[in-house]
Amino acid sequence: MDVVLISQNAQVTHCRVDAIDNTWSCFVSFVYGENCHVRREDLWLDIGCHATIVEGSPWLVAGDFNAIRNQNESIGGSTVWPSWMDEFNVCIDNAELDDLRYGGAFYTWSNRREDSPILRKLDRALTNIEWGNTFPG
After folding, report:
1. Which of 43, 47, 57, 117 is 20 to 30 A from 125 via CA?
2. How many CA atoms lie within 13 A of 61 on its CB side?
3. Does the model's pTM come out above 0.90?
4. Which among 128, 126, 135, 14 has a CA at the least distance from the CA of 61?
């Protein structure tokens, strides 16, 4: 494979990956979202902008987003759902991404406390429709 860096910032690195034999090419973005929801706004904008660059090509976006998509991705802690928590789903919808099927532990983060434990699904892989069409397995 040949990996070409397209762009990067503190929260995401975007690359193009090409097979050496030119049989396939795709885009891959590696994410580490900020803990602060206000700073994650830049991540959501960046992913949205990058979606226009990769349009029509397979795209995988994977990493620690430090955000959940809905309440069933969290156990413990606050049950309040402030409006800013919708921004992750809006980003995913606008970029035309969806969760890649996976196996293993559903919750990927915990506060590791025996009293008042909190579990969340913060790590995930998202793909566009072209990813599934190109790599159906």
Report:
1. 117
2. 27
3. yes
4. 126
